[in-house]
Write a structure and sequence with these properties.
Length: about 160
C-alpha cells in the first residue's frame, strides 16, 4: 500500500474525533500565524481537513484535502485532491494557507512547486508543519521569500511571499 493510501486511511479513520481532539490546538496556531496577515481573496486552504480554518477566519475559501471523511465533516463544499497535484490554474490565488499538513508528504518539493505555480504575484503563502518535521521546510527558500518564521504550538510556521 502506498504512503498516500496509508495517510488517507489514517485521517479517514480519525475524522470523527479530529475536531474535538485538535480543535483548540489548531485554533491557537491560526491565531498566532494569521493575526497580522491581510487575507486577500481568492484564498486556498491546503490540507483543509474538517474545514476548521474556514470557520475560524469566516472568509470564503476553497479547501483541498486527500481524506474524504475529513472533508465530509466540513460544513462547506471543498475539493478532494492531492496537495502535490493541485487542480487549479496558474496564478489563481492571492492567499494560500496550509496548517499541519505537509509533514505527511515524503518531500515538500512537489507541493511547493505547485503552490508557486498557482499563487499570484505578490501573493502570500502561510505554511506550518509539525516542528519535528521542520526539515521538510528546507526547500522553501528555493521558491519563496521568507517574511517571518514563528513557533506556533507544536508547529513551526512561515509567512512566505511569491516575490522571488
Ligand atoms: C493534521 S491534519 C490538519 C488539517 C487542517 N489543516 C487543520 O488545521 O485542522 C492534516 C491534513 O492533511 C491532509 N493531507 C495529508 N496529505 C495530503 C495530501 N497529499 N494532499 C491533500 N491533503 C493531505 C490530511 O488528510 C489531513 O486532513
Amino acid at each position: 500500500m502506498s504512503d498516500k493510501t496509508l495517510i488517507r486511511e489514517k485521517y479517514d479513520s480519525t475524522a470523527g474525533i479530529y475536531n474535538e481532539r485538535y480543535g483548540d490546538i489548531q485554533e491557537e496556531k491560526y491565531h498566532q500565524m494569521l493575526q497580522d496577515i491581510s487575507i486577500k481573496k481568492p484564498v486556498l486552504d491546503l490540507g483543509c481537513g474538517t474545514g476548521m480554518l474556514k470557520e475560524f477566519l469566516k472568509v470564503p475559501m476553497i479547501g483541498i484535502d486527500i481524506s474524504f471523511e475529513m472533508l465530509k465533516k466540513s460544513k462547506e463544499k471543498n475539493v478532494l485532491g492531492d496537495i502535490e497535484k493541485l487542480p487549479f490554474k496558474d496564478n489563481s490565488f492571492a492567499t494560500i494557507l496550509s496548517f499541519t499538513a505537509i509533514q505527511n508528504l515524503d518531500s515538500a518539493d512537489a507541493a511547493l512547486l505547485e503552490v508557486k505555480r498557482i499563487l499570484k504575484q505578490k501573493g502570500t503563502f502561510v505554511l506550518t508543519v509539525l516542528n519535528k518535521f521542520e526539515g521538510k521546510l528546507d526547500a522553501v527558500e528555493k521558491y519563496f521569500k521568507i517574511m517571518e518564521m514563528k513557533i506556533c504550538g507544536e508547529d513551526v510556521g512561515l509567512v512566505l511571499t511569491s516575490d522571488k
